[in-house]
Amino acid sequence: MIHRKNSTWTSSSLSLSRCEDRRNSVISALEKAAVFLEDQYKEINIDAAVGYCLMQAYLSATLDKWASEPGLDSERKRVALLDEKVLPLIEKAKQALNQKDPAYSGAFFPSLSPGFWKVPHQWTQTVPSFPFSPTNGSCLDLKTSDSCISFLLGTRGKRGKSCLVPDGCRSIMTKAHCSGYSLSHQLFYFLFAEMKGCSDPLFHNAQYYKSAFCHLMMQSNLNIKKRALFHDFGDLFTENILFCGMAGFSDFYKPQWLDLILNWQKQDKGCFWMYESSMTTKESQRVKRSEKILPGECSAHNTAVAVGAIGGFLYYGF
After folding, report:
1. How far apart, in whole angstroms, are the C-alpha atoms of residue 97 and residue 106?
2. SS3 sequence of the chain
3. Cβ contact 112:56 at 8 Å
4. What is the pTM of this model?
5. What is the pLDDT of residue 279?
6. Range of the domain at 59
7. How far apart are CA 39 and CA 33, in angstroms?
8. Using one digit for the tens of pLDDT, what is the confidence trace for 96-131?
9. Closest Cα partner for 86 from 44, 123, 126, 119?
10. Is residue 290 classed exposed, middle or buried when 0-12, 13-18 and 19+ CB atoms within 10 A define those classes?
11. Counted domains in the chain
12. Can you tell me the mean pLDDT for 9-31?
């Protein structure tokens, strides 16, 4: 009987130790990513800026969550310092973007404001039997995605009115059987609408669409992992985790998936690189959001989705 108690205690201690190690690894990764932002805030693109905003939202929510949890004083202090560091850097990046490309970047500026991104407080999981199946169809280009999102944000259209849903956006954002980046941007559109509190009838069925999209995105991730396609689709794999995590699907927060993302970080720079080798300009165009390759093989898009996803892992817990 004593032996059983000791075994249980040892197993529990090891589990707690693993959680602590993983938590500190995540915080360390985010600290390195903050150093990269500090060095490159003048050069990052709008994607990276949004990614860091998502990261910051998770840092703030993590601090609130940990406020009543004992034994996390050291980690809480590190996250608080990180949060304080990232906020002004995001504002500097926003100002730099405004100087370089005010027309394009300005369309997304509302999403760079503190408090815009609200993390989930309730969780669900994908449904394996959902009546949708993945395909190889690309149905949404970058220009259309940006346009539809800007209508929601009020940076396009009549007199700055937000939450507008043109018929073309209503149709394409609910099209079934899209895949890849098209699929993740359909979900991203619904997340923007949720953050803005849009009340258009389209969003009355938002949970249905989020469930459908994340079902397909889970199938995509499982296929990427099974076929070891990370060198080609590591950014999509991570983007799916980021967006579906933000949508409240906890089964995307798999510890082994976190380990993959952490291994893509360049330890000396803090950025992320998920590609097999150096990307040419032509290769970079396959990314369905804007990409920018920074010195030292640092990818703006890879870094954007990675810091947001890792922030979600920290908030959800281990």
Report:
1. 8
2. CHHHHHHHHHHHHHHHHHHHHHHHHHHHHHHHHHHHHHHHCCCCCHHHHHHHHHHHHHHHHHHHHHCCCCCCHHHHHHHHHHHHHHHHHHHHHHHHHHHHCHHHHHCCHHHHCCCCCCCCCCCECCCCCCCCCCCCECCCCHHHHHHHHHHHHCCCCHHHCCCCCCHHHHHHCCCCCECHHHHHHHHHHHHHHHHHCCCCHHHHHHHHHHHHHHHHHHHHHHHHHHCCCHHHHHHHHHHHHHHHHHCCEHHHCCHHHHHHHHHCECCCCCCECCCCCCCCHHHHCCCCCCCCEECCCEEHHHHHHHHHHHHHHHHHCC
3. no
4. 0.92
5. 56
6. 2-316
7. 10
8. 999 999 988 999 999 999 999 999 999 999 988 777
9. 44
10. middle
11. 1
12. 82
Q: At what angle do helices 46-66 and 300-316 cross, to 10 degrees?
A: 10
pLDDT digits over 44-65, tens only? 999 999 999 999 999 999 999 9
C-alpha span between 287 and 283 (Å, rounded): 8
Backbone φ and ψ for 305, nearest 5 degrees, come out as: -70, -30
269: number of CA atoms within 13 Å, CB side?
15
Q: Residue 28 burial by CB count (10 A; 0-12/13-18/19+): exposed, middle or buried?
A: middle
Q: Are 59 and 67 in contact (CB under 8 A)?
A: no
Which residues, 6+ apart, have CB-to-CB distance to 81 below 8 Å?
A: none
Strands 293-294, 298-299: pairing is antiparallel
> Which amino acid is present at 37?
L
Whether 124 and 208 have beta carbons less than 8 Å apart is answered as: no
Q: Which amino acid is at 285?
A: Q
56-65, 208-217, 281-290: the lowest-pLDDT one: 281-290
- The two three-digit tokens of residue 193, written as one number: 């609408």
Q: Phi and psi (nearest 5°) for 16?
A: -65, -40
For tokens 């940006």, the residue is: 146
